[in-house]
Automatic annotation (TrEMBL):
Pfam families: Abhydrolase_3. GO terms for molecular function: hydrolase activity. Belongs to the 'GDXG' lipolytic enzyme family. It comes from the Bacteria. Keywords: Hydrolase. Gene3D superfamilies: alpha/beta hydrolase (3.40.50.1820). This is Alpha/beta hydrolase. InterPro entries: AB_hydrolase_3, AB_hydrolase_fold, GDXG_lipolytic_enzyme. It comes from Thermobifida halotolerans. Coiled coil: none annotated. The keyword Ubl conjugation does not apply.
Length: 320
């Protein structure tokens, strides 16, 4: 499998127009500024409201997207954005949350968790789990069904979704699904060496938008201590026991340095008795989700995600 000329041009244009994580002189401020400039207009959603989740470390901003506030209460997807734990916010991923809500029929609560390096691990995990529990506790006020919740995330946000699904086993909330879009599942092993258990970190390590050097840099910003990479809350694949987690959909892409660790995580979930489905997008790359309006290939990542959410937590799902 090789990249199509269309995808190659798209990636080259992204790289040419964006500072790259791990490059000399590039810091979090520059990356965030660049990301905010690349806004994509999302689908119309009936109700969009900014809210705040109380926490001991200060309010966590969230944004509710409700596709049918006057209809039967749908389930809710708690969404965690990507960005290497360093960049991204409610606005950079507004189009993604809108897409999920509009096409799945489920409500979405997008979480603006604290970012590194100002707030290092485990700040993002704490905010993600706090927000998920808050959604469950305030489901009636949000107009969603408390018994139909899912966690969803892309890249770093996929890693957070995986961790929340593990933490939720200890007293809830109950989750109907975890949807992990090319997730970060293992922050160990950076910088990458030839004996990595994940060959995609080498073969896809550069030239496909996200680079392995960029991932090394993100991990360095996120972790207060390199030893924290072994903590399951940073690397969910390092959890001693994965049993009892919510059923998982794991979406991966051919030309992604994170491909192998994401698929290894899906296999580990299955080995622990957790229903886990992997969908690999042939010819796909890291960052393609949410770009379906600009690149048809992106739809191949979006369709299985919204289908699973529609079937598990969407407003039209029949119970029983």
């Amino acid at each position: 499998m090789s990249l199509s000329p269309e995808t190659r041009r798209f990636i080259d244009e992204l790289v040419a127009s964006s500072p790259q994580a791990g490059a000399v002189g590039v810091d979090a401020v520059l990356l965030r500024s660049s990301r905010r400039e690349r806004r994509i207009v999302g689908a119309d959603v009936a109700l969009v409201r900014d809210l705040a989740v109380p926490s001991p470390d200060g309010d966590v901003p969230v944004r509710l997207y409700h596709p049918a506030p006057d209809g039967p209460a749908p389930g809710c997807a708690v969404f965690f954005h990507g960005g290497g734990y360093v960049i991204g916010d409610l606005d950079t991923h507004d189009h993604v949350a809108r897409l999920i809500a509009a096409e799945s029929g489920a409500a979405v609560v997008s979480v603006d968790y604290r970012l590194a390096p100002e707030h290092r691990f485990p700040a993002a995990v704490e905010d993600a789990f706090t927000a998920t529990r808050w959604v469950a506790d305030h489901a009636a006020e949000l107009g969603v069904a408390a018994d139909r919740l899912a966690v969803v995330g892309d890249s770093a946000g996929g890693g957070l979704a995986a961790v929340v699904a593990l933490l939720a086993r200890g007293g809830g909330p109950a989750l109907a699904a975890q949807v992990l879009i090319y997730p970060v599942t293992d922050l160990t092993g950076y910088p990458v060496t030839e004996d990595t258990p994940y060959p995609s970190r080498i073969v896809n390590g550069e030239g496909y938008f996200l680079t392995s050097e960029g991932m090394r840099w993100f991990a360095e910003q996120y972790l207060a201590d390199p030893a924290d990479a072994g903590d399951f809350r940073a690397s969910p694949i390092r959890a001693a026991d994965l049993s009892g987690a919510a059923p998982a959909l794991v979406v991966t892409a051919d030309f992604d340095p994170l491909r192998d660790e994401a698929e290894a995580y899906a296999r580990a979930l299955a080995a622990a008795g957790v229903p886990a489905t992997t969908v690999r997008v042939n010819g796909g790359f890291h960052g393609m989700f949410g770009l379906g309006s600009l690149l048809p290939l992106g739809r191949q990542a979006e369709i299985p995600v919204v289908a699973v959410l529609r079937d598990t937590i969407g407003a039209t799902r029949r119970s029983g």
